[in-house]
Structures
1.
Amino acid sequence: MKRFITISLLAALWIPMSACIWWTNHNNYLFSPYDPQEFRERVENTCNDNWKTYLGSTEEYYWFDADEAIKTARRKNDALMVTYIQNLQKYLKCSDEKREEQWDYPTKQQLAKRRQTLLAVRSYAETKLKSRLRSQHALLVMRCNMLLGEHSRNVTFWHTTGSKMIESVYRDMMYNIYAGALNNTGSEQIAGKIFAEQGDWASLMTMFYKRRSYQAIRQEYLKEPDSPVLKFLLKDFVNNAQEAIDADGQEGAIGGKLFIRDISKQEAQQMCQLCQQVVREGKTDVPVMWQMAKAWLEYLFGNKQQAVSDIAMTETMEGTQRMKDNARVLRFYINAAQMGDGKKLDDFVASELAWLGDKTKDEGFFLDAQARITHQVLMKRYASQPVRLLAIEKATGCGEFDLGADTIEVRFLEQYITYATTPATTATPSTAPTPAVSTAGHTLDAYLKAHQHADLDAMNDLVGTKYMRLCRWDDALEWLRRVPIAYYNDKGYAPYAALRSWDIEPWIQRQWLKDDVVYGDGRWTLKGNPKVTFATLMRQLESTAALLDVKARCQRSYDLAIRYAQASFRGDCWFLMRDGKSVTDTVRCHETDFGAKALALLAEAARSSDVTLRQRALFARCYGELHPSWWYRKEWNDKTIDYDLLPDSRSSQYQAFAALDAYVRQQPAATYVSRCDEYQQWKKLKK
Amino acid sequence: MRDHVLWIFLVLLTLTGCRQGQETTGTINEGQSVYYWRTDLHLDSTERAFLRTHHINKVYCRYFDVVMGDDGPQPNATITFSDTLPTDVGLVPTVYITEDCMHAPHPGLAEKVVRRICQMNETNDLGPVTEIQIDCDYTARSRKVYYDFLKGIHYQLSIINCQLSTTIRLHQLSMPVPPVDYGVMMIYNTGDPGKFMERNPILDIRDVVPYLRWLPDYQLPLAAAYPVYSWQREIHGVRIEHTVEADDILRVKTAVESKRPELRRSIITYCLDKENINRYQPETYEAIYHH
């Protein structure tokens, strides 16, 4: 039955097309005074319940099946129902064909046939308007008129017939089609009111798409203080204001959401004044909606103390339960952001997280709100309590946990694992493993501990990897040995781990993989835990280096440099330290700069008395992926319409080339040096 | 063998709405064109006058998008035809396909796209299809599947001598050329929208130049598409409007054509819209379209 709604107005919706849409992470709208799915759900559920009753179905959720319904009607000798369903089926087929974007675009003949079908169904239904199923047949008449584009006929039919039917879901649907017909015949004001009363927000958006503003809300309020359209317009206004603020703060990606209209500060201030006026005048039955709108706008535009006092007033104000719940969400956000640190904050957060966590089961809005509150408020408030912060991120499941766990200091991650795997009762404030935690965090800890579901393989791998990043190979091995190989086979980097080697000198040979290999369907089975193998090797190479003579130690330094270069985030074996690779990556916090480490080792190797090794090490030191910046800067040249390359003699890579150059002036250059295009370019442009 | 013959027969049957006899030798018809990217084909008087004044001979019109649905790629946002183009202006059906549709092969998709386009023309009395353009922001991950998909379309169109073109974004110039008759180099959306304070995200020559080195040797006939659209936001009462200054468009055009002179012979603007027309002086459009 959901076919019914979307066919009415959305078919006429005109939206500018955009080939590129940017999606956002945390700018979920927090002003939501009603459930946007209300009308559609009500109609669908009621219709389905009616069918369930008729069919005697015990399914929890029944989806209308015409053939099954006809069988039941025949079994009951209900001839009228049989012909009704048969005609309903014909109508629904036409509706589906018109609404759905199918690969089979209709031919002219199909369009003509569709019209004939609709005319025939309408003629049939018109003969049954005094039957036992008169409401259903009247609805069928109006549906056919709607698809035939005969809107005036529907207006007349509603007045003469539809409106005289008894209250039922079918009458509601007729009323909705009537509103659509009014909209199509110039009576938009009445149509809008009906849509709003019914909660048909999709149709309202179509109607008001280009007429959304403070002025429109004010005029509507002056005409009718409790106009049903107001909650729709107010919601749209406040959320658009939030969108503008989010875009300004780079919270949301620009150009993202559909139906966005930018709200200026001046317009928001006018709206705050109007909200105040509405509450003061007392002409509305839902002051809580206006009060929370004002509070949220004040907060968004920087008047945070005003927002705190405004939102506090909502606790005792009248409105629907949904509005009161929305006000509580905003109170959570604003108060948690503005309250001082300590037990009061912890207790408040615990109680509100528990409440919101329950609400997330009801409706998507509360889940979205939880994600925004966590990201924008709780992560800041608990930034100095890393273990609790991770626990909050995990408990709210808002996607921040992975990044947090990846960047947190390893000792805190170890503490977190203990925290997450021990019962709440054992976590007394004095043994709480977090520094700078309030001395009375019981309620918050109890809530958080009850909502941790740690993936131990992932945690063990991460702790081990973090120790690898610090070059603490023994500690790394202790954790990594707990991780089964199957875990690594499932990782996205498995093809890289299977096919790349950390023994190859990256300055001589890169290990490119073909797209077909990386993005192919093949499944990879690793021969061993790559991290354990690498950490074991590094431990052995480093622990025995001190025992070697000078010449061998230089060679060992070179060998170690190869491995550090490969394991760095810009190396071919980046998967040893990261789960993914990006051109924007940098050395992260709590991570050794493997590139710098490789350079230092190569400097030792370059002191070797072995001229071959020495030249190789000097050449390796010129490898761009080890340096923080290139040997040149790029400057735009308007005249040549291109970049100029300006050598930067202070850069470490420039100096490495200079050292290599000085060396090969005295010694014959190896082929890999003389053929290096980068070196040739350096020679050409050097200062 | 019998299956093979049957398949060819079905393809021919499918394409009866498409025209025969057009040249498809991998060349571009010279001239001035525009993109049309709304969901209803309806031109006002300003837009009609623009077509006349600037001797526009082709409109690349978005017919529908193809997006990933639960059951695979699905058509979406199909255009309605409330209006027709002037008789001397060619209509090129253009289909935008989201990149995720090309993460895996979808057998039969090429045939579905061609058949739908031909049927849209027939149902709406738009005349035979002579050319189709496919727009997709393909990446290294999706390139192979996308090129196979283009081959499927190209094969069907070649039977009835229809041309096939595809859009080519700057980053795609480094990849092997797609199997089409020609490409349209999309010279817009070059920057990062999140860094709009640093560079114009619609077009900045500094974002274009690094890719120009691929142009001289790119083994495919190319047309060039330039932006004339705007992008607006109002934040804290301050209106931020991204438009591309005429001089900036022309500077990029000069740089592009210096690397590949043929690009001055076939030029498209994105997109036909009254506001875009009024944003620039007629002389600017003349300069953009100047051969």
Note: The first helix of chain A runs from residue 3 to 8.
2.
Amino acid sequence: MKINVKHVAKLANLPLSENEEKKFEKQLNEVLSYVKKLNEKDVKNIKETSQITELENVTREDNSSFSLTQEEALSSSKKNHNGMFKIPKIF
Amino acid sequence: MSLNTISIKQAREGLSKKKFSSEELVNACLFEIKKGKSLNAFITVCEKEALEKARLSDKKIKEEVDLPLLGIPISLKDIYLTKGIKTTAGSRILEDYIPQYSATVVKNLEDAGAIIVGKTNCDAWAHGSSGENSDYGHTKNPWNEEYVPGGSSSGSAVSVAANMALSSTGTDTGGSIRLPASFCNVVGLKPTYGRVSRYGIVAMASSLDSIGHFTKNVDDSALMLSITAGKDPNDATTPDNKVDAYENYLNKGVKNIKIGIPKEYFLEGLDKRIKEKIKNSIKLLETQGANIEYISLPHTQYAVACYYIIQPAEVSSNLARYDRIRYGNDRSFFGDEAKRRIMLGTYVLSSGYYDAYYKKAMRVRTLVKKDFDNAFKKVDVIITPVSPTLPWKIGEKTSDPLAMYLSDIYTVTANLAGIPGLSVPIGFIDNLPVGMQILGPHFSEGKLFQAGKACEYA
Amino acid sequence: MKPVIGLETHIELKTKSKMFCPCSADYFGKKPNTHTCPVCLGLPGALPVPNKTAIEWCVMLGMALNCDIPQFSKFDRKNYFYPDLPKGYQISQYAEPFCLKGSIKLDSGKTIGITRVHMEEDTGKLIHESIDGQDVTLIDFNRSGVPLVEIVTQPDFDNTKDVIDYLKKLQQIARYLDISNADMEKGDMRLEPNISLQKKGKTGLPNYKVEVKNINSFRFVEKSINYEIDRQTKILNEGKTPTQETRGWDENKQKTVTQRIKEESSDYRYFPEPDIPPVRWTELQITNYKLQIPELPDKKLHRFIKQYQLNDYDAEILTRETILADYFEETVTLGKKYGLTPKQIVNFIINRRVDPKNILPAKLIRRVISAGKTDEINDETLRKIIKKVLKENPKIAEDYKKGKTSVIQFAIGQAMYIIKKKIDTEFLKKLIIEELK
């Protein structure tokens, strides 16, 4: 199954040029062909591992504490206005 | 011998005995950094702050304050957030980013008295095995500048190997500490997943990222871990497990330690000379009383494929926050490797492909982990090569991403299983360093130091 | 054609801190971006740690809706890009939520199936403005990370009356459990109905559905759903199928409008959240949560009717909020000593619109007793009399406006002269002041 780079780039919010699309298509398809190796192994009755720590029930008490100041929160943004982050209008 | 070539332990002794000052020690490192500029190991050098801290440390030493790293110069991989000090993750996206907070590990090291001399270069977003994916130029191997130092913690490994710092922190998601350690002739530790807090470190693959460090010898590695290890309320994946007294393992020797040698790590793909060197090291351990057992880790052949599905999937999600709104530049500033991994990850998670790729990889991961669980019922530690080849020439693999990925063949298994791994230097071939990897069960870092120390004389 | 409606409701929990970080969750009316931290601002390297209380409240809400609580559940990442979502993914629950397969019985007798109840985090707030002639969007992340419970029903609704009854009951349960104010106008209860129409006689679900967003008030629920039903009816009558899409309710135009169709928006690429270990309950924990659930509204209502011999109407009013219900019961218990009946007490409370916050049960008893010694005159008549007094004595209104409150006594006197009976003057005074306003 060949990868539709245009579609995936859009999903991933990555702006790509036509040249980049071509270049990546080849490279990604090569990697995908390799990882398909997993199909050699029958894993029908194997459980998935999504947590390698075997931890469970890690929570914190509902206590509020310090936040960043408004200045700190905004300190790395290039555009802000009246204490809020500013971007071109979205619909 | 110049001051900066000593180990942490030697430095602590020298400082407390007033043989030299922290300011002298830090100056020696800063001088080395300037001298070795062509290696491109650093993105940011904190000369002024480091010297200020050094002078403060000298005052504290006079007052007989006792902290484990007081006055010791270290460097940090530039994916560790440092409040007020630029942190780039090796990428142009964060070229101006000054973090509003510091990583837990950074706080712990500073509380222990460590002095940060600078932020080291790395493959952008920790994506890479050679140090050639940095947006700030590649780092060079100090043993031969035409060769790669290994990655992604390239600058960190080099800064210790070239005596620019007495220790450096790194991260290991698929081998990014162990590989550069082996290529640069230093000791590199990948702790158990969750042993050290990930809070405040730019996330690469959340279920695989391990937070470790580089040192000149095993003793120093144990000392660093005793400071960085422990539960962090800010990181829900750090267990309650008590932090071992690692120093107690350092002089135990390897009598009656059972060492497993997995056949799958010694097949045709491995450079025969590396195989020979490792065999010799193992023989030496045997003469020190260790017992060897040949074992099998049958799912090793699927590990790279499994890793290169799970890791990019998590990467694609972790890099979604870089949208320029709250910090950083826009997403067109991502380099090629980052773009590749983001797209790969997006694809394997996408509708219609999740089951065939991601779900399947999660199941294979269970099998890889089971291989180790079964092996560790029979043996205490496992010894393998770190890399199938010697360090390669700069530019040799850059046009073939898949070839680059395959260099992780011996290291990704530890990340998939969450187990710790220690890379120790075992010599040179063609004047290029070779390392050997010691793996153990979860939270067995003490045993790794025990075996690693014995190898230091191998 | 029969409407087929399923509801997706979000309830914002009133915890002290946010869902995955210790920032204060009390964000309403605060200066922008003053309640944020690396976690809820999505800074590099930040990690989530779940709020224990929020999880417990979600489970309790699920239990109040008769859900099963699976022993094992976990969080998942829902990946999509939007400026109000700082991490580029929302931590939510997809495959293994906290609560499944519940139900709720409505006044109409219908039982609605609850598909699931799960936890997630809220997004930041977007404000659209024009600054120096440029159209911009401003973002405040104070709300980012506040705990949200999502309740999804089966597509069991077929009319708006049931929908409104469901929402009111859900709101009441949330308030009874004291986990949220569930106020639609304030945004702590949000509704997204999925609406389609099925041709009569056909079985199964229609082959499309339309989601409606941006319904920000109870009074628009009926309007927006009916508008959408009409819109879809017209299309179906033409032999076409309505487009499967998300539409927004436009308050000003009083119609639903197409939101810009985001083609790939529904591929959320859910995968298990690696930063948060899963949750596994013990039997004991589940039992404890069940015990913590107070008597729920419908149970209390039926008990009041039976125990106090009240009619439906009175019982409904008394049990609308736990404060009033508890107040009533306390008053009834005290009132027994004086031979007061529940009926007398409920009549007094309802007719005089007593506010539990203004008068203690013990004092209320005394007023009920003294009222019993006086004659009852109904509101209407009293108001007519008061209006007459004020009309014939315009100076009363003038002086009151000038701040001369003593003129009230004069008004009372005038009214009493006309009434010629002994009545509760406190109540009279209250009505006079109301009329003067």
Note: Chain A touches chain B through 47 residues (CB under 8 Å).
3.
Amino acid sequence: MNRALTIVELLLALALLSVLTVAGVSWARLALRAGFDTADTLAWESAAHATLDLISDDLTTGDIALQGAAGGPRVEVTPTELRIRARLAASGSEPLVRIYRLDPESQTLDRIEVGGAGRADRSLRGRLLLGNIRTFGRTIDPDFRTLTVTITNVAGRTESRTYFLR
Amino acid sequence: MTTPLSNRGIALLITLAVVVVTLSALGALVRVASTARAARTSETALSAADDLLFAVEPAIRRWLEQQSQRIALAPQTTVPGLAIFSSKWTLPAVQDQAADPITIELYVSAFDQLGMTPWSAVIAGSPLRTTLPTEVLRAVTACARNTDRSPGLDILQAGHRNVAVFPSGIDLESSSGEKCIAVGSLVATYNPAVSSSASGASLEVPPRINVSTAPIPLIESALRLQGLGGLEQIIQARTQGRHPTIAPSAARRSDPSIPELTTSSNAWSFRIDVRIGSIRKSWWAVYMRLSKWECVQRFVIDE
């Protein structure tokens, strides 16, 4: 014989359902937030790695052995910038220099090219690489001939790489 | 009034809701984890590719010192290039790291700078340029006019997308350069093989044509400028795999527009291809004999 649920049974069922729902939603929110946080971290890591790869390519490409003859070091660290002399000039004009610079106001890491431009286009050519950057560390070790670049974002995440200056 | 059937229905709905929520959360976590793993794998492969670029340098230098002076290409060759190194190996899966076996491929092709039409000859309008395809001629002339940089294929890479800039690698088995027709296999950025900053963009130092590697039309044009014959002997020697001999130059050495002829080269360029799993990276490197063989210019090939 069928019988109706008592009020206690109904309340218990509702309470159980509520607990299960709250627990499930909380768990899902936690998992999704962790997922999104990890995705954000991964996206930043990926962008930072791409920037470090770009520096690596700039260090290993261009006019390599003849830079010394043209005067000045190929890689230079100034208080505000990392400068890489990439290409010699054809006839007495400025060589092509690639500059990595942290803009403290906008907290962006930019890559700028100066010199060696087309004669028709002498404008400064730059592009934004990374945003929300707190520090852009760069150190040359003259004994081991290495360059260490460290990028830290506003959340405190740091990516670093050491390059051999060949 | 509820029946046992409707109770089961409610329980089923609750279970279904829990399963859906759990699976979607797990799916998000798995996606993030797999992205992280793929990013790590890709980063490791790129780093290994960079390391391989420098690891192959001693092999290239050894080839330049021991082999390059003995190269005599077949006369029917259309580009002065050959495959010099080809290797493929598999790294076994690393225990405890659940990594898959990785296949690594390394290919190196050499292109003689002195077997190509000199960049300066193209700019100066030398008759040597008539051996080049029209689109290559147009691309080099247009780009050289609009740059202050010393000659280099990066200028064309940035400016001209309608012509192949870097030649593809040459197959070691066939050693055929037919598929490698590009600016980089036809126009020499280091001929004359001296610093462009030292010589400027002028023709003060005459370019040199290597009769052992250059395509026959280019040699014919150079011989005509020199006022020399002997093309048949050159073809015959190269057919037999020998270095041709060349008659003393009739042209005055002070005339920088007339190329000198030589039987060996002091400037070679290389296409280096590295494949690690699904990651591919390629470079173009120019080596020149200064006091010893040195890499003077290198670019990442962006294809």
Note: Chain A touches chain B through 49 residues (CB under 8 Å).
4.
Amino acid sequence: MSGLILVLAIVALALVGARLFVIVGVATALCFLLFLGESEPLLQMDRIVTKMEGLTTKNVFLSIPFFIASGAIMTKGGIAKRLTDLAQAAVGWLPGGLAVAAVVACIVFAAISGSSPVTLVAVGSVMFPALVKAGYPNRFSIGLITSAGSLGCMIPPAISMLIYAISVQGSAAVDPSDLFFAGLLPALFIAGLLALYSVWTGLKVPGSRQPFSGPALWTALKGAAWALTLPAIVLGGIYGGVFTPTEAGAVAFAASVLIACGIHRDVPWSKVPSILTEAATLIGSLILIVVLAFGLNDFLAEIDAPGVIKGWVETADLNAWQFMLLVNVILIVLGALMDSISATLVFAPILAPVAINYYGIDPIHFGVVFVVNMEIGYLAPPVATNLFVAAAIFRQPFVEVAKAVMPTLGIICAALLLIIYIPTISKGPLNLREGRPMVEAFPWDGAPVEVPEAVAPEGAPAAEGEGKVLTLQEMMEKARQQREAEDAAAQPPAEATPPAEGAAPVEGAPPPSP
Amino acid sequence: MMALLERIDLVLFRAEQRVVAVMLAAMGVFVFLDVATRVSVGAGSWLGNPLALGPVAAAVAVAAFYTRDATHPVPKGLAAGLGVVVAQQAALWLFPNGLIWSQTLALAFTLWLGLLGAALAARERRHLALDIGSKLWPPALAPKMAALGHALTGAFCVGLLLLGLRSVGAHYDDWAGTDGAAGTFPVKMDLFGAELPIIKWVVFLAVPYGAASIGFRFLLDAVRAWRGELPTGEDDTLQQLGIEAPKEPTP
């Protein structure tokens, strides 16, 4: 009965167009009241506000406003034009060069802006008319740019990845910088497939190539070089150990102001306050959903939702590959119905423990797969953020845009299957960086991963501090310790350190969030 | 009555815009300065040496002036390099231990920034909704349903406001009852030698204020939607994404 009330309330709110944060908040409140609130219901409701206030203890969130602000500043100027000029000069000589340039421009722009819709608007408004003018089919041009624009959620510093790392930390230590690194190759892989599709289409379009010009490339490079340094500073700083991802956000923020206002001079200094206000508006629409979802996560942990899911998959007798296939179908449906941040916050903590602890899927690999699914969600109706944006900026009916993305959506789905079952695509570069064998096999037999530090004993009640959100430094340290433990476990038995059930909490962990 | 409420809304909106811009800028500057000073004073950090930092900064500045086709890029770049060294020394003098409190302060600001940003998003109708209902309701009923949705959102915010006030009251009692010994964040700001505590109830006041402001705006929108003055359906979705709707009819 309680479950029915909950579902009816959510459906009713969705039908009257209540905002997403209200749906999440009401769902959280009802969960506490209906399932846990038999005694002292007001105290249960207080947990919602306590969770919101708990934001002040979560360093990891600092990076989100900074990256959003940095992206907002960089994208206000003429950076899209600079990047598309550079991409055309660099790859325009290929068959289908202009279309390949659109894909390249989308990737680089997404790395800077960190936003799929913003990438679509900025690059699409420049490249779509150019592609149509060059003779590319209308539908191809719309589909390509709309799909390539959605790569934004995979390119570091991707907010979706940060949210995933935060969401699953109760079950596995995921270093956000590792996740960034692991997402790079899959993003390039998808972009490469889209580029091949562009070349194949370009072969049928007469005059789709432009002659290569060294001076034109130099001029374009000179114009775009500073914009290109931003991702280099962020990634170089993180992987060089100079700063953490949180601090990288502040560095990116400072660098973007310097580049956009001081060097490019695309953005007058007087406009910075209004851009910051706009960024804050975006942050506000995001953070309210996030903080309210924390309460829901608490509830799901309290009722051991992952344990319930595990029971289901045990009953269904699913193999690892069947489980992953099912998860992907679920995630694509969820991605089509919810925005990616909410879907990650609510479902990653439920699905990841089962994938990691029961089927032996690597948490970083699972994160990459999760994020690719969310990328598909940007293109799948009815929520389909990027389809709405594309319909608006290309002035096309929504149905036409939905049809236009079908070929590229098919390519991305095919890429997703390869990424799922060939974990080397995501983990390979990371393994190489850490001196491990590059090739990583999919756990077809479903052997659980040994995660001694992060996983609580099965069925045990939540320990003090469990489920708390760690700082980025702590997450990185925890992930490092876990890797070391895994390496030790891979040694001959005499040297291995057996994982202790219910191992002690990580040293130096902060007190639990309120 | 509605005109008065809209004027109050506008005044609040402008004030909130200014506050969030200042907060976001301050957060970015403080955390960046913390990183910069830490890199400057860190063991083995060659950038801490002005003789190394100066030439590097000057080279970057010359390249910057060159790429933006400025006149006399070299003298300007050298001057900028010197400026960076002076700024570094000034930062080290002002903050010899770095700004270890910067992230604590920035997190306190984040709560205010998030809630004020959410209030701004409420006025600009940028909060995401699941756009299911608008496709199902007949056109005549859509505004009424939208009004109901906004009213329910407003009611939710009123609930949040009351819970937020309860929590702030508890934190205030904690702080006032101990003469400020408790009810603060563990790190104190060190500004020009003065140690300033970051008081929790002041930070957590963001929740009731934000809830009140968001709720107020959604209740205003409920009235507007009831009167049929708000966009619905696809136009509403585009507004949530901050995208301008096409001005020409689609082919």
Note: DSSP finds nine helices and two strands in chain B.
